[in-house]
TrEMBL record:
One GO term (biological process): proteolysis
Name of this chain's protein: Protease complex subunit PrcB family protein
InterPro entries tied to this protein: PrcB_C_dom
Keywords: Hydrolase, Protease, Signal
Ranges of residues in domain PrcB C-terminal: 89-148
GO molecular function, one term: peptidase activity
Signal peptide (residue range): 1-27
Length: 168
């Protein structure tokens, strides 16, 4: 019986030690990370775009910007000159929806640095009408282009969430 108790004690000690090491490593990662919220400037938005599929894209050159800007048939400010050495354009397209009531928004851009890795986390929220909402019976393609400050070498990571809103 004595060897079993010693074995269990040693096993319990090793488990607790590994949990302690994992928590210390996680705390070190948090201490080695920095975050800063970046400003967002909307340069084009609309409920009717020519992009019929869902698309999230980081644009880093003028040719690609003109391609995405051309998807807004009712005008936009995206034709303005963008200094791509200082900024990146984020394109958020929800795709084609059978009714109105849908919307897409770039709600936050956060520059993060963790363990010497710099990246920007872009939060995109898609709003969806609930079943009790009265909506326009027309096809829509919600879309938005925004400008955020970013180094051209910085990775962009998209974080998406969906919100169903309810009507009375």
């Amino acid at each position: 019986m004595q060897p079993i108790i010693k074995g269990l004690t040693a096993s319990l000690f090793c488990t607790l030690l590994s949990l302690s090491v994992a928590q210390t490593a996680s705390a070190d990662d948090e201490r080695n990370s920095t975050e800063s919220i970046l400003p967002i400037k909307v340069i084009a938005k609309g409920l009717h775009s020519l992009q019929y599929g869902k698309r999230l894209e980081a644009v880093r050159n003028s040719a690609k910007l003109q391609e995405l800007a051309s998807l807004f048939p009712y005008g936009n400010n995206a034709s303005d000159e963008v200094d791509f050495s200082k900024y990146v354009v984020i394109g958020a397209f929800m795709g084609s929806k059978a009714t109105g009531g849908y919307n897409i928004d770039v709600v936050k851009a956060v520059q993060k640095e963790t363990n010497n890795r710099k990246y920007i986390e872009v939060s995109v929220k898609s709003k969806v009408p609930g079943p009790s909402c009265i909506v326009t019976m027309a096809f829509t393609q919600p879309a938005k282009l925004v400008l955020i400050p970013a180094d051209p070498r910085t990775d962009i990571v998209f974080k998406e969430n969906y919100q169903v809103y309810h009507c009375r």
